[in-house]
Design a protein that fits this description.
The protein is an alpha+beta fold. It has 15 helices and eleven strands. The chain folds into four domains: about 50 residues, no CATH class; about 90 residues, no CATH class; about 150 residues, hpI Integrase, Chain A (Orthogonal Bundle), CATH 1.10.443; about 40 residues, no CATH class.
Length: about 400
C-alpha cells in the first residue's frame, strides 16, 4: 500500500480521525496530522489511477477534492477542497449530522445572522451562531424573546447538569446581537460570568510537557511560555510578526493590547525551522490544536508518571507567567497589567498570588570589591547575605532566573 502523508506539511505521522460518510453510503477515512494538526480526507482513486499512483516515485495520495455538484451540499461547518481551492467559512453554527434538527426558517435566520456578524466586524471565532443553534434545536423560537429567556434558563448539558452562568451569559449576548439585527426589543436577563479555576503548575511541569511534544507543538507551547499570550493570539500570529528574536502580538484577543516580547535563541531557532508555506506560523484552529494537547497530556503522564500534567491547559502558561510577574514585582498590578497587556485593571488582580520561590529559581553571585558591588546593584541583583572569610568580606547577591520573554519588568 502506498504511504500517506499530510498535504499541508508533508509529514507521515498521522492519526486516524474517524470516518466521513458520503451521500452514496460509502465511508472514507479522515486523518489528523500529528505535526501541523491539519485534518484531511483520503481521496479514493479509480482503480486505473491507483495503480499509476502506486508506481509513482513519491507515492503521495492527495486530500479529497469535491466536484462543484457535491460542493453545493456542504454546510457552513465543513472545510473542504473544491476545484483545488481551500476555503474555510468564517462562521459556523451546527454539525452536519444535526442540520436536520433545525427548522428551515430558523436555519435561514442563522445564516442571515452569520452574515450580519461578519458585516459588523465581529470576531471570526466567536460562538454566537453555535450558541443560538443549540437553543433552536431545543425548541427555542428566535423571534420570541420571552420564549428565548425560558429556554436559556432551562438549558442543561449532556450529563444533565444545568448550564453555568457563563454559558447562559454567552447565549444572552448572542441573542442580544440577533435582536439588534432583527430590530426586536427585549429585556436582557442578568447572568454573571463564573471565574474559572486555572491550575497553576510549576515551571518543571511545563517543561516536561514541552519535552514530550512534537516539534510544532513544542514550539507552540514555547511561545505561550515566553510571551504569556492567549493561545488564540499565537494562532493568529503571522511570519511578519517575527523579526529576528522579537515576537510581536499584533492580533490580540478581546480585552488585550498588542505587545512585543524578546524570545530566547532556542525558541527563535525552533520557529525559523517550521514550514513557511502559510502566512500564519501555526495554520490550524483552536479546536484542533486543543485535541492534540489532550493526546499530548496523556502521553506525557504515561512517560513521566506525573498525573498533575493532566491539569495543564494552554491558559496555564499565561497564569503561571502572570503569577511569577506578581512575585517579582511584589504584587504591583500596574506592572502585571503592562506585561500581560490587559486593558482592564480587574483582569490583572487574579494573577496576584504568593509563590514560594525555590533555590534553583535564582542565579547567585558574589562580590568582594566596591566596583563589583556597584555593578551588581545596577544590574538588578539583590543582596541577601555577607560573610568575612580569611579577612575578605564577601557579599552574596541573587536574582530570579530569566523566564518567559523578559529578563526584568
Amino acid at each position: 500500500m502506498c504511504p500517506l502523508c499530510c498535504p499541508e506539511c508533508g509529514s507521515r505521522r498521522l492519526y486516524r480521525a474517524g470516518l466521513r460518510r458520503l451521500s452514496s453510503g460509502e465511508t472514507v477515512q479522515r486523518w489528523l496530522c500529528r505535526e501541523c494538526c491539519y485534518r484531511f480526507t483520503e481521496k479514493k482513486l479509480p482503480q486505473e489511477n491507483l495503480q499509476r499512483r502506486l508506481n509513482s516515485p513519491d507515492g503521495i495520495i492527495e486530500s479529497s477534492q469535491l466536484c462543484a455538484k457535491e460542493a453545493k451540499k456542504l454546510t457552513a461547518t465543513e472545510t473542504k477542497t473544491v476545484a483545488g481551492e481551500k476555503r474555510k467559512p468564517r462562521y459556523t453554527f451546527v454539525n452536519t449530522k444535526n442540520l436536520d434538527l433545525i427548522p428551515e426558517d430558523a436555519r435561514g435566520l442563522l445564516i442571515k445572522f452569520m452574515a450580519y456578524l461578519e458585516r459588523e466586524g465581529f470576531a471570526a471565532d466567536n460562538q454566537y451562531p453555535t450558541s443560538l443553534s443549540h437553543l433552536v434545536k431545543d425548541g427555542a423560537n428566535l423571534l420570541d424573546p420571552e420564549n428565548m429567556k425560558s429556554v436559556i434558563a432551562q438549558q442543561k448539558k449532556k450529563n444533565g447538569e444545568p448550564w453555568s452562568d457563563s454559558m447562559k451569559m454567552l447565549a444572552v449576548y448572542a441573542y442580544g446581537a440577533f435582536c439588534t439585527m432583527q430590530g426586536l426589543s427585549w429585556k436582557m436577563p442578568t447572568y454573571h460570568q463564573n471565574e474559572a479555576t486555572i491550575y497553576l503548575p510549576d515551571e518543571k511541569e511545563l517543561d516536561l510537557l514541552i519535552s514530550a511534544a512534537s516539534k510544532r507543538m513544542a514550539t507552540f507551547l514555547g511561545c505561550l511560555k515566553e510571551t504569556f499570550a492567549d493561545p488564540s493570539e499565537i494562532l493568529r500570529a503571522e511570519w511578519i510578526d517575527l523579526k529576528d528574536n522579537v515576537f510581536s502580538i499584533n492580533h490580540p484577543v478581546k480585552g488585550h493590547l498588542s505587545g512585543k516580547y524578546e524570545l530566547t535563541p532556542q525558541l527563535t531557532c525552533m520557529l525559523n525551522v517550521l514550514p513557511h508555506k502559510n502566512k500564519r506560523i501555526f495554520p490550524t484552529d483552536y479546536k484542533t490544536i486543543y485535541s492534540s494537547l489532550h493526546c499530548l497530556r496523556i502521553k506525557a503522564v504515561d512517560k513521566f508518571q506525573n498525573p498533575a500534567l493532566l491539569n495543564i491547559t494552554f491558559k496555564s502558561f499565561r497564569h503561571w507567567g502572570g503569577s511569577r510577574i506578581a512575585q517579582l514585582s511584589n504584587g504591583n498590578p500596574l506592572i502585571i497589567m503592562r506585561i500581560l497587556r490587559h486593558k482592564s485593571f480587574e483582569s490583572s488582580r487574579k494573577y496576584i498570588h504568593t509563590i514560594n520561590f525555590k533555590e534553583e529559581d535564582y542565579d547567585e553571585t558574589v562580590a568582594t570589591t566596591p566596583d563589583e558591588i556597584r555593578a551588581l546593584g545596577k544590574a538588578g541583583w539583590q543582596k541577601y547575605d555577607e560573610v568575612t572569610f580569611s579577612g575578605v568580606q564577601m557579599h552574596f547577591y541573587r536574582k530570579p532566573k530569566r523566564f518567559g520573554g523578559m529578563t526584568k519588568y
